[in-house]
Amino acid sequence: MPFLRAAEINNNFAQVEGYKTQNKSINSAGIGHNNILNSNSNPNTPSILRTVLPIYDMYQESAELVSTLQENRRLLWDFLNAQNRLNAARKFFMPTFPEKHQVLQVGKLSNDICEQRLDTFWNGGRQYKGANANQSIGFLYEQYIGYLYEKEGWQVEYYGIVNGKNDLGRDLICKKDKVILIVQCKKWGQGNPVHENAICQLYGTVYVYTKESNSNNFIYGVLYTTTSLSDEAKNFAEVCGITTFNNFKLERFHSVKCKCANNGKKLFYLPFDKEYFNIVLDVNKGDTYTYTVAEAESKGFIWAHQ
User: Fold this and answer.
1) In the beta sheet, which residues pair with residue 219?
2) 141: which of 8, 68, 187, 199 fits an S-S bond (Cβ 3.0–4.6 Å)?
3) Where are the alpha helices (DSSP H) in 42-102?
4) Which residue has the higher pLDDT, 247 or 35?
5) What distances in angstroms separate CA 87 from CA 26, 72, 94, 127, 251, one per listed residue?
6) 13-22, 117-126, 247-256, 264-273: which range is least confident on average?
7) What is the dihedral of CA 79, 82, 84, 89, to 10 degrees?
8) Order of strands, edge to edge, in the sheet holding 218-225?
9) 257-280 burial, b for 16+ CB within 10 Å, e for fewer?
10) What is the mean pLDDT of the chain?
């Protein structure tokens, strides 16, 4: 039903009131409701029915419309409440950026927010959530150890991050000159020491890698962990020739990855970005690490999610 203007509605209801009065006068003359419907003697009957009944139908439709609008209002209210909760969650996890027309300010503002989030991440807020939280913090520890080797001129393959659970106990493969290190990283909590089975796995994967590589390189196994080693694990490591670094804590490092993309864009990624662990840097192509967002910005990189 098309919506009626206020004046039309008032006019229609005025007509209805007039017909009510007219109907009373007809009834007082001895002509009942049924007689009005059936009578052909009353000259006013056709005009009354033609006018009143459409308005009555419109009234019924209006009642249904009001009911529908009330239901829609309730649904809209529920939707807005849910939307408000969703927006609150988004504000908690993601920064808020200005409108698109403020293009000149977006880069600076987003980088300031990124800097704050990066500081929060490393100053006690370094927490991944969800089903893959432990895997993510483990990957970050591998990234940290790999960065330390890269800083010393080693070529690092992040084998564990790329292959996940199929890494064969080879989190990092570090190469320099004729030396290859098979590195295993265990980001474990205190009170959960590394046992000899981890040493045995590392020794075995080094042995297999050596046989498969069929090269003259010197291949060694190295274990890094944030916790301690059991006495038996220390004994196994000594016998098997595995170098161990226990209680080796994860610390803030140059964790901002700056990547020169193939399309010419210079993008940086933060440890909490979903693509972070899949980004492999190539220093020969201008890729680099930075400690802060400001440093990345000074080198011409912008945040990948800007």
Assistant:
1) 180
2) 187
3) 45-93
4) 247
5) 63, 22, 10, 21, 33
6) 13-22
7) -150
8) 155-157, 172-176, 179-186, 218-225, 243-245
9) bbbbeeeeeebbbbbbbeebbebe
10) 77
